[in-house]
Specification:
heterodimer, A: about 5% strand, B: globular
Amino acid sequence: MKSSSYWAENIRLIVICLVIWFVVSFGFGILLVEPLNEIRLGGYKLGFWFAQQGSIYTFVALIFWYSHKMNQLDKKYNLEEDEQGE
Amino acid sequence: MDELKLYTYIAVFGSFALYFAIAWWSRAGSTEEFYAAGGGIGPVQNGMAIGADWMSAASFISMAGLIAFLGYGGSVFLMGWTGGYVLLAMLLAPYMRKHGKFTVPEFISDRYYSKTARVVAVICLIIASLTYIIGQMKGVGVAFSRFLEVDYGLGLAIGMIVVWVYAVLGGMKGITYTQIAQYCVLIFAYTVPAIFISLRLTGNPIPQLGLGSTLADGSGVYLLDKLDTIVTDLGFKEFTTDNMGGSLNMFAYTLSLMIGTAGLPHVIMRFFTVPSVKAARASAGYALVFIALLYTVAPAVGAMARLNFTQTVEPATGQQLEYAERPQWFKDWEATGLLAFEDKNQDGKIQYSANQQTNEMVTVDQDIMVLANPAIANLPNWVIALVAAGGLAAALSTAAGLLLAISSSVSHDLMKGVLTPDLTEKQELFAGRVVMTLSILVAGYLGLNPPGFAAGTVALAFGLAASSIFPALMMGIFIKKMSGTAAVSGMVAGIGVTMLYVFQHKGIMFIPGTEFLGDLPENWFFGISPNAFGAVGALVNFVVAIIVCKFTGPAPAEIQQLVENFRIPKGAGSAHNH
């Protein structure tokens, strides 16, 4: 039972991350690029910036946030792996 | 010997000496070290090695050139080749690390309790990896012949020997440590010229910020606005909005590259080298940091190269460059045939335009942009020498990773797993080294005599990985009941649809004349180009597998137990043998 609620929490985290992943790249970078290009970020048009810069920064942050949350989750359910003797 | 050549020799051979020294120091003694570096690589080091493994000659040399000429459309490569790591970190890597085997086909065979599935995976892996290596070997040959002016074949042979020494000797362990050094060389070689150019054009040393800054010429105009103006004046599409045949095509293209990235076996197997599940998750993050360093600089390199190039041939609107006064780099690249001028109206001036009738720059090869960029921007010779060493590091590190993926799938999956299961560890290690040597020879031969379809097959490699391997792995982890029969049906359907689509537009087995629908945008399904079709193939794979599973019943209980087990980190050991 313990491991199934661990898995459910993991799935919830993955869904949150993948929604953000989708919105910054496919959403802001491709589908909504035209309206966003009306807004400027210095010399960048905002949609263009998301497609060539912003989405990549967000991807990096997402992976670190996810691994941080998963480490907490492993602890909470006491499912951390055994210490390696190497 | 001139100064540039001397610097280039020092940079190239100095870096080779470093790779050899590392290989000798970290040679592999066991199959565990050979396939998975003994499972003892930390996440930061592993991330750096993945970065070098991933960033090939294509990323280093071609990508910025593509962006220079595609503009906003080039974003599909930037997002596609980085977004896949998010999928890897959350959907595949930690669970496959927990399962703790050496290769991707081995995971598939355990999860789907089927040797057929394992053999199908080995075939996909070998096709995808071999087509990739051809490109790397060509890159090595070109870098040598352009910068050191040695024969293309000799350059290729030197590259083969270098890879052979450290890959065969060191296995995964040697390759990993060498790749860390290669990452440092390639990122240094990529960013230093970019910093110089950004500083010169905008006064801002950080290329990512320089691209969004105003020009340093005192006009107060933003760099990207200036670029938009000068390219539209020549009749080209606006740089920041040119969208490569529409949003749907860009959407499908990006998705195919992302799924393909997450499904490429030579990347996945890097996650077997870390000591824990926790480290596997972190590795993906560090890998993307190191990859992003290059990928966020690339758009600046591309845009600035386009600006410099265009302003060289047309210094101001309506004021064209006299052909007789062209700069030295122009002449150098004309000699290679990658840059060509034809004086159509016989006025001795260069008319550069999007109009095919009047355009006099008849050839401008995209691949020369990164290599010619330092010369176009008048940078010192040692910077140009560095670029040569960086290009070689990118090509060699990727080739080594691919060779390891091929040799492990043949010696471990095909020989030990299916054909001759009673192989001892020592024999298996020997077989792995023999297979690797043979693969280097095959790759070298194909690099010397590149098949006509080489360019098309890279797209096929991503299509295969996206439509077969990724869905099979993901369903294996997230759908506990998914059965072997259903997964194999899905893989076959996914590959089938993708190959059919590629072949009908590009020719059966890429043989010209056999394409029954022309390679024209009008014939594309909803305007999706063949390179972007892997995403559709993946969708077909998921749907077919789920339907077949409904009708043929779920996986056996012990397999469902296995899935339960690799979903949690507890109880992981290092990657081990049977």
